[in-house]
Amino acid sequence: MKMRRILEKAYHTLLACTGISSNQLKTDRDRQTDILCGVVGCDASVLIASKPGNTSGLAEKDAHDNKNLPVEAFDSIKKAKALVENKCPGVVSCADILAIAARDFVHLAGGPYYQVGKGRWDGRISMASRVSFNLPRANSSVDELLKLFGSKGLNLEDLVALSGAHTIGFAHCEHFVSRLYDYRGTKKPDPYIEPRFLKALQMSCPPFGGNVDVVAPFDVTTPFSFDHAYYGNLQAKMGLLATDQALFLDPRTRPIVVELGKDKQRFFQAFSAAMEKMGSIGVKRGRKHGEIRKDCSVHS
């Protein structure tokens, strides 16, 4: 508790003298800071850069499943950390900065301003090999999602609310191209894609070649606003990923999709509660379990 009070005080002090959290993200707003904390926890392990020639494997950041994370987002966190270190060296962790930056970006994009518990230390382990076991896949079923989220202490409403983060951001074609041409080996498109939406996606993402770097917005209606349009899209068969659309097709999650789609404030409340809960997953505290990095991309 003493360490937590120290970190809380230090954080409020640095906000007063630099305004790093909000001001940095206002500067970089158009860059889409997509690094929201994942279900693996908020220990900033995703910020560690892989070392050339490292025989132990790639860092989490370079896992194939993290390909959608934009380089600019990492740069924004790095700039924020540099400002913090200049004013309060060795006090505020990258994990706290990441959690705060995620919250502030959501708010700047029009979303809720939820509470972020502080006092995390940075994780000492970052391995690409563990990512696939801790993040949803583009075609995860609701059963698989519930198992994954449940293992982290998150419930059905948390799952649907956190999926609403797809109201902003983009995905590469490779994550949904099979839905457009060969859904589950049928040689036909997914029948649960709205025809005009399907045609638009096919124009951007051909079945073979030419789509490596092409992206599409998760939310085709308001891609740069954090709102509840995502849930309306699912009801209109315009979910980008199969795992998104599955939330409306499954009878367990459909009522929550409909409810959140009707009321933006209800979505904001559910999302805030889920983010606060997720922010406590895998928290590291103290030198025995973590570190406070000077550079977020390198272990201390």
Automatic annotation (TrEMBL):
Keyword Heme included in the entry's annotation: yes
Tree of life domain: Eukaryota
Biological process, per Gene Ontology: hydrogen peroxide catabolic process; response to oxidative stress
Protein EC: 1.11.1.7
Catalytic activity: 2 a phenolic donor + H2O2 = 2 a phenolic radical donor + 2 H2O
Cofactor: binding details: Binds 2 calcium ions per subunit. Binds 1 heme b (iron(II)-protoporphyrin IX) group per subunit.
Protein name in UniProt: Peroxidase
Species of the source: Nelumbo nucifera
Highest classification ranks of the organism: Eukaryota, Viridiplantae, Streptophyta, Embryophyta, Tracheophyta
Gene: LOC104613174
